[in-house]
Amino acid sequence: MPRQFYVFITGGVHSGLGKGICTASIGKILQWRGFKVEPIKIDGYLNYDAGTLRPTEHGEVWVTEDGGEIDQDLGHYERFLDVNISKKNNITSGQIYWQVIKNEREGKYLGKTVQLIPHVTDEIKRRIREVAKSSKADFILVEIGGTVGDYENAIFIEAARQMRMEGEKCVYVHVSYVPIPKHIGEQKTKPTQHSVKMLRELGIQPDFIVCRSEKPLDDVRRKKISIFCDVKEEHVVSDEDLCNVYEVPLLFESQGFADKILRLLKIRPKTRVRKTKWEALIKKIKNLKKKVRIAIVGKYFDIGTFTLADSYVSVIEAVKHAAWHTGVNPEIIWVNSKEFEKNPKKVKVLNKVDGVIVPGGFGASGVEGKILAIKYCREHNKPFLGLCYGLQLAVVEFARNVCGLKKAHTTEVDPNTPYPVIDILPEQKKLIKESKYGATMRLGAYPAILKKGTLVWRLYGKRKVVYERHRHRYEVNPEYHEILQKHGLVFSGMSPDGRLVEFIELSNHKYFTGTQAHPEFTSRFMKPNPLFVGLVEASIK
Ligand code: GLN
Q1: Which pLDDT score, from 0 to 100, does residue 304 have?
Q2: Which protein residues are within 6 Å of ligand 1, measured from CB?
């Protein structure tokens, strides 16, 4: 087997620096040189996966092709690198300890005292090498979540240290923060010095330091960081704030980051640098004049705008990709569905936007507001895209207001509704009864057979079968398929057995579509998802 290389990415000073973007960008500049890259994300929390985390707690849950519910950073990897990543590429403390304790109970360590070192570190290395082996990638990028100095990730950093000692070819990249305090106006390197000191205490001397800062790193600071952190000056990389995160690979490129990594490993690029298409798209985006205003009617508003954007990150990115490819600048308008419940007249604000998205969600809060928004779109010919819960609520709205089934609802919100147009999947009922909540939804990619001649079919390039990723427990109740269709709701895509509704649309409307899936998870920077493109195109008409 040809040689594989590991790039470990750690973080310093504080969380939320953009390590995920940095990791994805390192992957991109290596890809541009013909290398196959495989990213792994490590999370220190004890949850087995991210599926049971509230979006407001940890941001959006990313769903993989193979049905994993994992950290949103893996979304950045897929959007940048245009690869499908397996759930195995997200390693949590929960999974590691689970396996070690299981091994112990099965007598696999018989006679031994089971300890953090070597048993836990061995399991971590085994998981990393397992992904490396099956991927056959040239580069394995391992992003260690959290900040150096956390108890939670110290054991993973120790495993990373051991891997070089065991003969693996490793590069250590430390992403740190260089603040510019307002009252001084100067870039301060001390926090970075401290975080590197802590990393060195754990036995890792970084090969590169990536400095996140508001402004480009100046020469004086670069020198200082180099001397105090014992890293070559040219290995201190500036990663200043940019308007568009997809420019980060080009920023790294301008500093020769990839070539420096290759030189350190004494290897040569496999191909000439292939970044023309990426560069061209960035250039196109910079020159866009026209704007499209897309409203996201969400409900996780109680926790401030940052967390809000974090809860819907893939939807936002999918809108951007689609808008850029269509040739317009996206403007996202946040609309709190709970506001419509307090004052239904407020729904008229949707008049000011070009298109509307009702994204996924769970539970009763904000649901009536979302239904009002959908009704507004349907009645005012406003382009609308419903994602998962968005489709389900569009069906509820249609049942109530077009089919005349007053009080129709999803049983998720009203178990006693006279018309359960959205009901729990039969196989899900048992799981809930047994309190089996972890990783038990209908998850991952499933096929849908598209109906010839429909809008959705056209948008997907007239394909017969399409795969999108899912994460739901409820579905359009088969007992209501007939009445819904009779009143004009078009089922543009069904599961192959014809039981589950996957896509809906209205034919007498500018653009009214919904999907039981989450098409935002397959949207990439260079390859937007067709449903979002359809929405943007209709919105600018
Ligand atoms: N709550 C709905 C369900 O479980 C929709 C889920 C979602 O939007 N992801 O089916």
Answers
A1: 54
A2: 360-362, 388-389, 392, 412, 471-474
